[in-house]
Amino acid sequence: MAVIGIDLGGTKTAGLVLHQGGIAERYRMETDASSQESVMRGLLEVCIRLQESAREKGIGIDALGLGIAGFIDFERGVVTDAPNHPLRDAPVRDILAEESGLPVYVDNDANVAALAEARMGAGRGSRYLVHLTLGTGIGGGIILGGRIYRGALGAAAELGHMVIREDGPPCNCGARGCLEAMASGVAIYRRVEELAAVGHASPLVEEFLADPSAFTAAAVCRHADAGEDLAREILEGAGRHLGTGIASLVNIFNPDAVTLSGGLLGCFHHMEEAMNGSFRETAIAISRRHVRILTGTLGEDGGMLGAALLPSEGIAHV
Amino acid sequence: MAVIGIDLGGTKTAGLVLHQGGIAERYRMETDASSQESVMRGLLEVCIRLQESAREKGIGIDALGLGIAGFIDFERGVVTDAPNHPLRDAPVRDILAEESGLPVYVDNDANVAALAEARMGAGRGSRYLVHLTLGTGIGGGIILGGRIYRGALGAAAELGHMVIREDGPPCNCGARGCLEAMASGVAIYRRVEELAAVGHASPLVEEFLADPSAFTAAAVCRHADAGEDLAREILEGAGRHLGTGIASLVNIFNPDAVTLSGGLLGCFHHMEEAMNGSFRETAIAISRRHVRILTGTLGEDGGMLGAALLPSEGIAHV
Q: Which of A70, A222, A307, B217 could make an SS bond with B185 (beta carbons 3.0 to 4.6 A apart)?
């Protein structure tokens, strides 16, 4: 079986062909997110390019899987709402199936990343796995009994929007003190912004003030690497919040593994010890001793690989 | 099919016979929790009494289900650890099966309460249901795809030990700011205790100081019913914390229903509005609009009925 897996990102549409357990082809292009039509045209182009280059190697494509950030009605293949793309109640599966002639499966990007880590990545062999994508925001995917858990409407696994500090800082979702508001790239940015606002003087804050729009969590990591205490404290704080969130999830799911992926892993060496500390303080012994907390091994390929695994999952789910 | 369902409580061992969807017999006795043997003898006595009275009506018992507070290895029928009983790595299923000659199923009390509400109670028709038992502590049960979710080792659904306020008050589990430490009977008791310690003067605090060992959340409810502002604020605070916890669970599970049971429902009229307020502020729209938050309709029978439903669940699970 050969399957195309596509990760529809805000800036890149990236695809691969998964064939006999390995990556046979790759293709990526800019995402034109100006309209639903332009997004769909881009997806179709990546699909056709991969189909053609696979055919040259004698590989026939059997199906197409797609991962997208947003709320997905998996059974109908409809993107209900997507934060980074103009897709609203968009029948993405049916459009792509008609244009490509392939069976098409569409799911949330963090769900498919979880599936990839459980089947091929750090969590291989886990039947119960919780996955967190740590980036600007925090996404979640849940594998239960070996299958993606989607909930009643496909809106489950919003693990970044579990509250860990009531009355904490505001989150993009409108609530307060969500894990995402405490331990994501945005949370780290806001912490620096706060320190700048109160006139805190440090090389880190100076860099922020020089160009706030260009500043990211990666800069905090650089300052921490250079030995700046303030930067280290900020990342350790984020790690501590992350450990509390993971402990809650471990108490809820009693999983075999928790896997982590995303850009924030670049700062993970400054977060890990604090994360482990608060995790140990909070998780219940029986579940804590069983679970492994692992950084994902698939990196940016996780989304594409997980999308390519969707057809073999079929539409049956928990 | 006729099944005995037993709820092993800290003070009472209560059982019933579920026959053709109705309760055919009941029997209850004091729990003698002095040893594993005494607990097992009590369970067997309830089972035999129910079997005998059913036989007099011409009803033959097919199986026995049992709900116990604690960590249960469902597949092996072993109680790993129980807070209220001297059961540690106790092979409860095999002991009862040998003595009674019946197929025996043993599960966590909150899991079976969730199953009962999903099959026969307030959540009837829900395939995805989150259940909270609100009492001295907070227990949790999760129904996914119509079945009990137990996790890798049967330790899942410790929903009372989801942290909602990092650095909040200490919880009995050793962590801080768990839902149980914020919104349970114990949490309410501790809040009054705190106020008493700082010399707060009010009828509520006076009643507490007169006999702290006899004081319970029910007293706070009485003072709130009598119009005492302090008592109302305490219960509203607990309601607000509960709403935050429910919102997190709704964001995680995207369930059809959340059901609530337990002694604290006696105070629910002082908690509900605040609970709904923080729930609305925190839950994500798509999941919030879909879910119903319901008080359970089975009351104290929930545990026995859920235990009696276990055999029809079989041992397959998510």
A: B217
